[in-house]
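Summary for the steering committee. One of the milestones for this cycle was to obtain a three-dimensional model of the protein with S-adenosylmethionine bound, which we needed before selecting residues for the alanine scan. The sequence and ligand used are listed below.
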Amino acid sequence: KIPMCAVKFPEPKNISVFSKNFKNCILRVPRIPHVVKLNSSKPKDELTSVQNKKLKTADGNNTPVTKGVLLHESIHSVEDAYGKLPEDALAFLKENSAEIVPHEYVLDYDFWKAEEILRAVLPEQFLEEVPTGFTITGHIAHLNLRTEFKPFDSLIGQVILDKNNKIECVVDKVSSIATQFRTFPMKVIAGKSDSLVVEQKESNCTFKFDFSKVYWNSRLHTEHERLVKQYFQPGQVVCDVFAGVGPFAVPAGKKDVIVLANDLNPESYKYLKENIALNKVAKTVKSFNMDGADFIRQSPQLLQQWIQDEEGGKITIPLPLKKRHRSQQHNDQQPPQPRTKELIIPSHISHYVMNLPDSAISFLGNFRGIFAAHTKGATDTIQMPWVHVHCFEKYPPGDQVTEDELHARVHARIIAALKVTADDLPLNAVSLHLVRKVAPTKPMYCASFQLPANV
Ligand SMILES: C[S@@+](CC[C@H](N)C(=O)[O-])C[C@H]1O[C@@H](n2cnc3c(N)ncnc32)[C@H](O)[C@@H]1O
């Protein structure tokens, strides 16, 4: 509670005139508006009907509310005001019959930021490092509280919930050990706990999923957009081996890339299918629920099957009807013809995406021999597919490891997994993109390279 002073003018327009002409006399503190509601000294009944109309009544009680302008923060009493305000300001107040009144300003729960409140309510030993970081997915805020904060989880969750309008639910990761499907056990620590199904926008698409049952990481959106934009061309075939709920596959399908998207988690598969329908990409994206190893080995056949299933190996995509001018609609005898475009499905795969950074490299051996049938008697050179494999390249804290060294380490793991030599796949044929650092000495990379013809 802060003792301040406010000025009341009988004529409300003088509030802005005073604020404009005497800027140095009014309160200038961030997040505190200088115009405030004040209780009128007169009960409402004693005011004229005109005055009454101008005043808004606070919560139906008999005390009318009027507006005033707060004086500079160094002024704490009416005497202070007469001592500190310059002559011309005092003259203006007198001329306009203004009244200086004491006003107690209450900085309550609404005023303070989450971090400030947490500093005030958590035990003193946490003063320096209250937990404030979280990621947002749909309406859910997701925290990863350190062990010492766990006993205060619901308090922390409630403050975050109160202070962020769009958040309806706060969850905490309760174990850092991920499941096979890269999901984490989580606990709802504040807000709605009935459903963790969210809708999240990314890359101009909408993704729906149960946050507790599938993998989703909003921090990967640039990586999703990068591969789709930089590598995947309309009409090419892409196999997404660990597709999750579709953040590579669905936007790619939207730009007429032909996608075979796979995930072993039945829940991811279920939402992948939903997201394909939701974003109207069923013509260009097919979903599979297989182990990644089998999916890679069978991918050439899965593509052949798709070609056979489509008449003439072509996908026909309906186009939105062209908007016609009203006069044209009137003259036309025929109803508008549905417009379509056709995509011929190529018989070779252009890209594989493998975003399972913990172990994707160990799946590379599955490419061995799968294109042999194509390469054997082929007269023209076969375009081997590109692989975009995600991986971590962790090193001990304190080690000075250069980017070149990390590049060499990733390259060595890739050629070992493919069982090829550095002559087949030289270091400079593997480009390394730093996706993000999950910890200071645990970078996540995406290695992109064209499969050597002899795998
Ligand atoms: C790190 S997530 C990536 C998901 C998605 N590509 C993305 O960027 O959000 C890895 C995915 O691989 C799936 N997965 C794990 N093991 C798998 C396997 N052996 N075969 C196929 N998918 C698997 C998980 O269910 C999870 O959805």
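Key point for the committee: Confidence is low (pLDDT under 50) at residues 43-60.
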